[in-house]
Amino acid sequence: MTIASEQLGAALGPLLKGMQGNPDRLLLAARSINQPAPGGLTYLKPGFARLAQIAPGLSGMGVICSADHAALLAGADVTCFITDNPRLAFMRAVERFFSRPRPAAGIHPRAVIDGSAHIDPTASVGANCYVGANCVVGARTVLFPNVTLMDDVRVGADVTIASGTVIGADGFGYERNEDFELEKFPHIGGVIIEDNVEIGSNTSIDRGTLGDTIIRSGARIDNQCHISHNVEIGQHAAVIAQSMVGGSAVAGEYSWLAPAAIIMNQAKIGARATVGLGAVVVKDVPAGLTVMGSPAIPADEFRAQRAAVKKLLG
Which fold has domain 3-98? Predict the structure, then answer.
């Protein structure tokens, strides 16, 4: 798509604080800052320190940037879109003008759909998907190829589920019997995925045992995550690659689970709390707190311990 810079500026709305340079410049494509080209649109993060080195390569481009960076580009053949949040403004510009089109509505001929399932006519179900008994797929939701929804999975509107993900399989629940053998706990619950959720590829979300596993609206779950039975992921929470959320655990609204975080069974992560990279949470995390380490402890305590160890070894 080709757009004029003035048109892009208008589309950014309140995010845009001002423009500098040619408002008629045509923008042809979104570009990485490391692969500039005339007619491209890119952005500069606040604090970006290599601007003097790369500025000549930005000639003929549109650049979304802070006021400080725009001042350094004054006089260059660059159209600057000035904002306090360049990355967010760039994301919105790409989404509106340069993103890939969503898959067309409809069910691929190679998908397998149980007769009791309900697929909204505006949803898209890709090749080799399986949608089991009593499942619901809401309006404008996209199941990319090779997604599996086992029985009793209810997916809301505007959800995206990437390839290879399995939702609604049994979780890992066993009890030792009289002979010390493992007997399986029956999983008769389902999975509820509310509206506007995004789930990455090759992720597993287990069905509940008696109740449901619930992914609340606006949540984001990355590739290769494991969400166990009876878990609740709160509104707009983020669960990032290779994280494991144990049975009956809760991730509160707006919480952030960094890559490879492990949340043990029944632990509760408070609203807006952050679990650091590779942390192992064995007890509840209060709202708003950042924890790190294994076992996870408050970030300031973790850093103090590391400093003490470094001093002892120094």
Answer: 3.40.1390
* Three-point CA angle 243, 249, 252, nearest 5°: 85
Predicted confidence pLDDT, tens digits, the chain (314 residues): 799 999 999 999 999 999 999 999 999 999 999 999 999 999 999 889 899 899 999 999 999 999 999 999 999 999 999 999 999 999 999 999 999 888 999 999 999 999 999 999 999 999 999 999 999 999 999 999 999 999 999 999 999 999 999 999 999 999 999 999 999 999 999 999 999 999 999 999 999 999 999 999 999 999 999 999 999 999 999 999 999 999 999 999 999 999 999 999 999 999 999 999 999 999 999 999 999 999 999 999 999 998 999 889 87
Q: Which of 187, 226, 229, 236 is catalytic?
A: 229
Number of neighbours of residue 220 by Cβ within 10 angstroms: 18
d(CA 186, CA 34): 53
Residue type, 135: C
| Catalytic annotation present for 187 | no
Q: Give the fold, CATH level 3, of 165-300.
A: UDP N-Acetylglucosamine Acyltransferase; domain 1 (2.160.10)
Contact of 173 with 186, CB cutoff 8 Å: no
